Amino acid sequence: MNTTTMAPPTSSATAELHAEPTPCTYSIGKRLSLLLAVQTIIGLGVLLAVIYAATWMLFESRQQEELRGYSNVLIEVLKESDAHGGEAEMTQKLLWLSERRPGNFVQINRADGSTFYRDPLPTFDPYTAPSSELRFDIPRADGSAPLQGRLLIDCSRDAQYGQRMALLLVAATLAGGAFVAWATFWRVRCSLRPLADLAARTRAIDVRRLDQRLALSEPIEELQPLIEQFNGLMHRVERTYVQLEGFNADVAHELRTPLANLIGHTEVALSRERSAPELEEVLLSNLEELQRLAGIVNDMLFLAQADRGVKARRGAAVSLAELVNQVVEFHEAPMEEAGLAIDIEGDVQLAVDEPLFKRALSNLLGNAIRYADKDSRLCVRILREGDNGVRLWVENTGPAIEPEHLPRLFDRFFRADASRCELEKPHHGLGLSIVAAIARMHDGFAAAESEAGRTRVGFSMV
C-alpha cells in the first residue's frame, strides 16, 4: 500500500497561517453619503408623513362638513314634506333628491328597524367603496318616534388622490435621499482632494528627498496640525539620517586607521624572517591597535544602550567630592606630565551610578588635560542646582572653542579642530558623547561654555 508523506509547511506558509487578517478598508465619502442619505430619507419620510396625515385630515374634515350640510338639507326637506303630505310626500322628495346627488347614498329606517326608504341603484357600492358616513334623526310631525337616517358619501376620488399623493411623497423621499447621497459623495470627494494631494506628496518623499515638506495651497484648519506634526517628524528623520550617515562615515574612518596599521604591521612582519623579539614587538603594536578597536566598539555599544533609554543604576547617596578625588588620583600621572594642578570646589550628597559617574568625570578630566595650557590649573566645581539637581563642571585654561562648535561638542566623533594630530593627542572622539549619554541616564544633560580662554565642560544630574 502506497503512503503519501505531507511536507511540513514552509516558513512563508506558516507566516500566512499565523498572519492576522487585514482589516477591511472603507471609503469615508461612501460612508458619509450612505449615512446622510439614510438620515435624509428618515427626515423627509417623517416630514412628508406628517404632511400626508394633515392632508388626509383635511379631506376627512371636508367630507364631514359636506355630510353635515347635506343631512341638514334632508332633515329640513323631510320635515316639511311630512307636515304637508306625510310619508308619501317624504318618499317622493327623497327620490327626487337621489337623482340630483349621484355620489350619495341615503337610507332611512323606522324606529322599529324596518326600512322606510333606500336609494335605488346607487352609483357606488356603499359596502366596498371608500366612503364617509353620518347618521342623523328626522323628527315626525305627529310626534311619533323619529326616523333614523344614514347618509354615505362616495370618497373614491379622495382615496385615489391620497394614493397618488402617497406615491409622490415616497418617490420624493427616495429621490431626495439619492440626491443627498450623490451630492454628499461629490462634495466629500472635493473636500478630501487635499488629502489625496498630501498622499501623493508623501509618496514622492524618499531617502534622496528627505528635505521635502508637506504644504497646502489653501491651509485647512483640520489638516494643518497633522501637516505640522508630519513636517516636524520629517525634520527629525532628516536630521537623524544625516547624523547616521555622518556617524557611519566617522565609524568607518576611525576603524580604518587601526585596521590599516594592523594590516601594515602584519605585512611588514611577514615580508621576511623576524626574530622572536621583533615578532613580540609587532604583536605588542598590534595589541595596542586591537585594544583601540575594542575601545571604539565598546563605546559604541554603550552609546547604543543609552540611546535605547537605559537608566543609571543608582545606589545610596554618596559624596560626589569623594568620587572626584578617586578619579583625580587615577589621572595624577598625565597631570604631572603636563604640569597641571587641580582644585575641587563644593560637595553634594547624591545617589548616582558610581561607575558611570566616574567614567563621565574621567572623560571630562582627560579632555581637559588634553587641551589645557601647560603648567595651568584645572578646577572641578560641584554645584547644587534647584531642589534635587546637581551640576558638575570641569574647567581648564586653554584654546577657546568657537561658539558655532559648542552645540556639536557632544556629537559622536566630532572634533572642533580636525587638523589636530591624533598621534600627539590620541583619542577616538566618543568621550564627550559618552558624557552626554551618562548625563541622560541620570535624567540630566551635558553642557559646555568657552570664553576668555577659559573652557567649562560638564553635566547635570537629578
UniProtKB/TrEMBL annotation:
Its main location: membrane. It comes from the Bacteria. One of its GO terms (molecular function) is phosphorelay sensor kinase activity. It catalyses: ATP + protein L-histidine = ADP + protein N-phospho-L-histidine. Keywords: ATP-binding, Cell inner membrane, Cell membrane, Kinase, Membrane, Nucleotide-binding, Phosphoprotein, Transferase, Transmembrane, Transmembrane helix, Two-component regulatory system. Coiled coil: none annotated. GO terms for cellular component: plasma membrane. Its EC number is 2.7.13.3. The chain crosses the membrane at residues 36-59, 166-186. Member of a two-component regulatory system. This is Sensor protein.
